[in-house]
Amino acid sequence: MKLLRLVFAVWLVSVSLLASAQPKSSKEIVALVQQYCGSCHTAPSPQLLPKASWPPVIDAMAELAERRLGQPFIPPEAQHHIKALYYGSAPEKLAVLPYIDESHPRIRFAPTQLSAPTLVPQIMAITPLPPREDQLRFLVSDAETGELRLLSGKVGDLDAWQEQTVAKIALPVAVDSLDMNGDGLDDLVVADLGELPPNGNPSGRVYLLLNKGKGQYEQRLLVEKLGRVSDINALDLDQDGDIDLAIAVFGGQGKGEILWLENTAKGYQTHQLLGLSGALNIDDTDLNGDGIVDLVTLVAQEHETLIAFMGKGKGVFERQDLVSAGHPMFGATSMSVVDLDRDGDPDILFTNGDAFDTQTDPKPYHGLQWLENKGKMQFAAYDIGRYYGAVNAQATDMDGDGDLDIVASSWVNDWDDPKRNALIWYENNGRQSFTPYPISQAYRGLVPLVVADFSGDGAADILTGSFRMDLLHQGLKRDDNTLSFNLDRSEQGEKSGRLMIFVSQERAEQE
Ligand code: HEC
Ligand SMILES: [Ca+2]
Ligand SMILES: [Ca+2]
Ligand SMILES: [Ca+2]
Ligand SMILES: [Ca+2]
C-alpha cells in the first residue's frame, strides 16, 4: 500500500505545516478546509501544487461548488482564510522529476512513420483486430478527421502499410470487435465520445458496424443521448448466451455513469451500476476466480478510485472499491487488467497524468502503479515509476527474458525540454521492481500504444499514435467550454507525426 500511505503521509505533514504557519487560527482554518473542501472530495494537501496556483484553484472550486449547488457554498471570508493557508504552506515550486536518459545496454528504438504528419494529430485509440492471412490489422480512431480507419500491412514491410476509412464517426474513442449477429464475421461496436471537453451534455453515442465482408460495414446507431461515452465492451453479462454491452460514461460537470445494457427480445434494457462522473473505462475480468465475470473501472475527476463490480450471476453486480488515490489532483488516466506478477490471478496496471483541469504543469506525482491481487479480494498498491503526464501503459515482455515489462506514454510533459520522453519502457527485474529506459524524445503527446513484432525479428516493437492534447488545450475556450483553433501562424505550418512504429534494434554486442 505504498501509494496510499504516501498520499496520507503528505497530508499529515501538510496539516502540521499549516499548524506551525499560523498558530492562532490554524485549527479553525483546517476545520474550514475540512468543512468546505472536504465535502466533495478528500481535502488535498497544499504540497500538490505550487503556491501561486492555489488561489485560482480555490476560486475555481468556489465557482464549481456554486454552479453545482445552485447557491454560494464557500463564504468569501472562508475562501480568504483557506487561500492564505494553502498559499502559506505550499512549496514555491513542485519537485522536478529526474531525467530518464540512460539507454538500455542492449535495446534501442528507431521510429518509422506510417503516415504523413498532420496539423493537430488526434489518434484517440488503436485497437488490434485478429490478423488476416499475412496482414496485421488495427483500427485507428482518428478524431482529427472524424473517422474510424483500418490500418493494415505485412510484418517486415512497413513502407507498404495502408489505411482505409471504415466509418465516419466524430470521436470514436473506443471500439470492441465481436460477431454480434452470428454470421461468422466480426462486427464492431464503437463508442462516440460526442465532444472533447468534459461536460454533462447527452452527446455520446454507440454505433454498431455490421461486417458485410470485403472491408464493408453497415453503420447503425445503437444507443444515443448518453453522456460522453469513454469505453464500451460487448460480452455476455448475465450468462444467458447473448451479447450485452458494458458502457462507461465519463461525462463531466458531476454527471456520468457506468451502465450495462441487457440484450432482450425487446431491445436493450438499461441497468445503471454507478452514477459518478469521470469513468475512464470498463473492462471485464474475473477478479475473485469464481468463474463469474466481474467489471473494473477507473474513475477520475474528484473520485480518483479503482472500482470493481463483482458479478453475482444473472446480471447482478456488487460494487467494491479497490483503491483510492485519496486526492483530486491524482489525475487518473488509464488502467488495464493484466497478470503482472504471473501468479495466475489478474492484477491491475494504472496510470495517472491528467493535468488539464485547473493547472496544466507536469506533476512529479504523475506516473505508473499497479495493484497486486493477493487473493480473497485483498489488494496491495505498488509504485512502478514517476513519469510526467503518464497516459497509457502496456505490459509486455520487451527484452525476451519471460517477465512482463511495461511501455508507457505521456500526453502532458515539459515538451520544450528535449530530454523529456514521449515514450519510455520499464524493465522488470522479475520481481516487479522496474528500471525506466527512454524510447523517444522526438515526438509530443504519443497516447495510444500497441506492442507487437512489426519488423519480424522476434523482438517487440511499438505502434503508437499522437494525440496533441497540448495543442487542443490551447484551443479550448474556457467560458463556453468549446474548442476553436486560433493557433498562431508559426504553429499552423508545423505538422507533427501522426502514426508511427518504434522498431526495436539490438545494439551490437561489442559496442
Ligand atoms: C462542490 C464540490 C466541491 C467542493 C466544495 C470543492 N471541490 Fe475541489 N473538486 C471538485 C470536483 C468535481 C473536482 C474535479 C473536477 C475538476 O477538477 O474540475 C475537483 C477537483 C479539485 C482539484 C483538482 C483540480 C485539477 O486540476 O485536477 C483540487 C486541487 C481541488 N478540487 C481542491 C479543492 C479545494 C482546496 C477546495 C476547498 C476550497 C475544494 N476543492 C472544494 C469538487 C469540489
Ligand atoms: Ca446476455
Ligand atoms: Ca468473479
Ligand atoms: Ca497476479
Ligand atoms: Ca522482460
UniProtKB/TrEMBL annotation:
UniProt cross-references to InterPro entries, sorted A to Z: FG-GAP, Integrin_alpha_N
UniProt keyword list: Signal
Stretch forming the signal peptide: 1-21
The species this protein was found in: Gilvimarinus xylanilyticus
Protein name, as recorded: FG-GAP-like repeat-containing protein
Pfam families, per database record: FG-GAP_3
Organism ancestry: Bacteria, Pseudomonadati, Pseudomonadota, Gammaproteobacteria, Cellvibrionales
Keyword flag Signal: yes
Database matches in PANTHER family: ALPHA 1,3 GLUCANASE, GH71 FAMILY (EUROFUNG), SIMILAR TO CYSTEINE PROTEINASE
